[in-house]
C-alpha cells in the first residue's frame, strides 16, 4: 500500500490518529508522501526493505531507540510519537499502540471480517474453551484456526506466535494467513494485557466469551478492578454485538449488566442455573470423562459425554456451547463438537505409563485455578485414596498470590510438594518461602526446590487410586531460570520418572 492510503483518516479506538507527516527531508509536506509500504512491523529484527516500522513504547524498551536499526535494515517510513533525526518519512501520532491495530488491520485487508472470529477471555479456562470451539467448528464442517497460549495453528499446522494474544501487527498477519488458507472460524484467546495494550483493536468478533475472573496479573494491573476493566473492553459494540458470559462467576453478572447497558446482546450461562440461557444439569464426573445434560434457551435437555475431566470443564463446555450458539452454530454440531475426543495440552492432561494411580498435568498457576484443579482431582480419587500436588509460583510475577496458593494446596491436597516453577531472576528459595507463608502449621507440605526431584518424590510416594496433579507449567516445554530457558516439560518428566519407577 501507499503510505498515505494506509494512514488516511486513521484513528485509534481512543481517537489518537495521525497528527502530522514529515517527508525524508524533515519537511511537513503539502501533498501525500509517495512511499510504498510492503510490510508493517514493530520489531526491528523483523524489518525487511519496504517496511513501515512502528515505534512502540513498551514496558522494557522503547521502539524509538530501535528506529535507526530498522532504517538500516530497509524500513522506508516510521510511525512515531516523537520526531526522530532519521532520513525517512515519518508519521507522528499521540499513541502508536492506539493506532497500530486499525493500521495493521487495514494493511492486511480487515481479515477478521472475512471469518467467524470467536474471542474468549477470563482468568482461567480460555485455552480449553477455544479448543472446544475449534472442535465444534470442525463438527459443523468448517475449516478452523486457533490462536492462544499454546500457539496459533490451522489444524496441525503451527503458525508463529509469541504471546497468548499476539501484538497487533502479528495478530492481523496471522488472521490474514488464516483467511488466505480458507479458514472459516477462528477461536482466539484474548488476554487482559492484549486488551489493555490495544493489540486486538479493529478486530471484529462474531461473538465473545467470558469464563471467570480471579486473582492474577496484579503485578501488571495493580488492582482487581483494573484487571476487570481490561477484560470488560472486549464486551462492547466496538468489538462485538453478541456475548456469552458466565454468570456463575460473581464478575460475570457484573459484566453481563455492563455489556447489556452498552448495547451488546448477552447470553448467560452457568452450571445448574435454571435462570441462565444455557445450563448443565445432572453432571456426572469420572476419571475418564464427564457427562451432563445440556439445556439451551429453554429447550429439551440433550445428553453430552465429554472426554475432559473435572467440574470446571463443564463450565468451559457451557462457555463454548453458548458462544457457538450466539455465533450461529446449530445445536447438533455443538453437541457433536463437545463429544469429540479432545486433548488440551497441559490442561488436566493425563500421563499414563501403566501405573495404578492417576497423573494429571495442569497449567493451574493462580489460586482459583489450583483450587479448581485439586477439587476436580478430589472427585476422581478412589475411596480412601489421596490427592497429591506438585506446584510452585513464577518469579518476577504477582507475588501476592503466592501465600494464597500455599493455603489452597494445604487445604485441598492430602500431600503437597512446593517446588520451583519459572524462577526467572528471583531466588527459588525466596519464592518458596513466600508460598509457605500461607501454609498452616502442621500441614503435610514438603519443600523440594528441584522440580524433577519433587515430581519424582510425588510419584514414588503415590499409592493405588491416588491422583497426582503436577500444576503450574502445563504445556510449557521450558523452565525460565535467570535469562535462559532450560528444557523442561512436566509431561515428559512425569513419564520418564514413571518409567524409572516401573
Written account of the structure:
Helix 3 runs parallel beside helix 5, helix 4 packs across helix 10 and helix 10 (312-326) runs antiparallel to helix 11. The chain is α/β, with parallel strands linked by helices and 502 residues long. Helix 13 links the parallel strand 19 (387-391) and strand 20. The protein has helices spanning 3-7, 67-72, 96-107, 126-139, 168-180, 192-196, 218-221, 224-232, 250-261, 312-326, 331-339, 367-378, 401-412, 428-436, 451-460, 490-501, and strands at residues 18-22, 39-41, 51-54, 77-80, 90-93, 116-121, 144-148, 151-154, 157-159, 185-189, 207-210, 242-246, 265-271, 278-286, 289-296, 302-306, 349-350, 358-362, 387-391, 415-418, 445-447, 467-471, 478-481, 484-487. The protein is 32% helix and 23% strand. It has 3 domains: 3-96, MurE/MurF, N-terminal domain (Udp-n-acetylmuramoylalanyl-d-glutamate--2,6- Diaminopimelate Ligase, Chain: A, domain 1); 111-339, Mur-like, catalytic domain (UDP-N-acetylmuramoyl-L-alanine:D-glutamate ligase); 349-501, Protein-Tyrosine Phosphatase, Chain A (Alpha-Beta Complex), CATH 3.90.190.
